[in-house]
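Case study B.
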Amino acid sequence: MRRRDFINIAAVSFAGVGGLAVLVPLVSQMAPSADVLAQSSTEIDISAITPGQAIKAVFRKQPVFIRNLTPDEVAAAEKVDASTLRDPQTLEERTKEGKTNWLITMGVCTHLGCVPLGAGEGEVKGEFGGYFCPCHGSSYDTAARIRKGPAPLNLQVPEYSFISDTVVKIG
Amino acid sequence: MSFAWAKEYKPATGLTQWLDEKLPLPRFVYNAVGAGYPVPRNLNYMWNFGVLAGFCLMLQIVTGVILAMHYAPNALVAFDSTEHIMRDVNWGWMLRYAHANGASAFFVVVYLHIFRGFFYSSYKAPREMIWLLGVVIFLLMMATAFMGYVLPWGQMSFWGAKVITGLFGAIPVVGEPLQVWLLGGYAPDNAALNRFFSLHFLLPFVIAGVIILHIWALHIPGSSNPTGVEVKAESDTVPFHPYYTAKDGFGLGVFLLLYCAFLFFAPNALGHPDNYIPANPLSTPAHIVPEWYFWPFYAILRAFTYDFFFIPAKLMGVLAMFGAILVWFFLPWLDTSPVRSGHYRPLFRKFFWFGLIPTMAVLFYCGGAPAAEPYVMLSQLASLYYFAHFLIILPLVSSIEKPEPLPFSITESVLGKDESAVLNATPAAA
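Model:
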């Protein structure tokens, strides 16, 4: 290799690597900032939710549905053969052991992110008795599993734990 | 560039002569939209919409820059600052309505411009590059309009942002991180609003740049015309100025009448009342739809409700929606007929008026309707025809169709055949 070629390749490579390195901050500034990431867990008092009721809480600026299922709703969810579903999961897999009546899911439709109806008082619950997304007509059952419509997955179950019988920590 | 008989710019005064030697800007304008640009003499009113689109962009930039002087892109105050513009700023209501309705007007004009291109096959050689740049401009317009609609931070703004960025979430593997990256969070919030404002301000100037390329590419072969027969002689053309400046001026007057009718008498007719409710991340509006100009593509997005082999319905919808526009990029090579104008293509013409146009109308209607039957089924049928039209029907029609005889020249199509001048020429061969 000629000395001139070496200098040429070395200079262009150095400038190229340097140029790419500049892209790192330009790209990563778009990612969630520290204050957005800091809102990563929420504690919620669930003592006032009676069977059949649900509340909407906020986790990472997104709604979370906390629903106290009635025995009928639990039975309806368990009656379904999970293997026939689009996103096969049983109610047990979607709730904590011994607390299958507490259905805690994100209130974000897995299609395009609308908030499904069904958690608020008097809202439509759809033909499977769980949640109904008004945007594109996805219906979820009483275990918040997708049953009909364009959504590909069940409503996401966030990471959570029961701190006590009445307080749940999400995140 | 241009034809041999194009008039040459002659600076009239000492000052313009001095300028012509240093920076020949007047010469450039003279050759672009002045007497130095010869244009086919037979252009009909469908050829007004390019100039009108340029006017709309200027209108949007002027009103938009002014609105940005009064608007605050922060999730806490964005909605209030929009109301501040509407209630407190002098003439603020008019400027905002002018901008919002200006966006709609821009899309009306551009859709007509595109459909002019479809009917007269303006995309065919040697004008492919003009068409490709035009599709790029259209995509940029859609991105700009979408981000602009988010800025008032009302309910439709918020949920529009959520649904559209959710489209990227459908991409396998990288989708969700990409969506979070685009939004700068897990849901639309201050970070998203701020970057949308920044880009909404930037993109119109990018569009202006691509328009310059679009016009540059246009001036190499020169404008097409309703016969699709290329310019052959000076008698086929007239100078852009004063002939088409006058014709475009008249068109602009008609356009402004319609635009002002909306602006002053029905400024909210094309908007959604829900966007006067501040953004609420916990409650989705009952009927969420994009602005009217996205309806046909939104209908295609929602048409896919079942998994397609191994591709999930959601991803399929997203691919189809983007594909509906990307297919336009291939149009110059899908339509292989040597005849350009739909006037001389009997079969093409039928599929245009009774296939493509009704299909677009159905998609348009279904996109604005709720996601329920019969609209989903109609969207599915219309989406099927839409893709079949471009990918199957156009190539097939091009190969089996027998075009009608073309006029020998533009001049002949305007003035009729000069029988005494015809010696041995056989026009049908042209």
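The mean pLDDT of chain B is 91. The remaining cases will be described in the next quarterly update.
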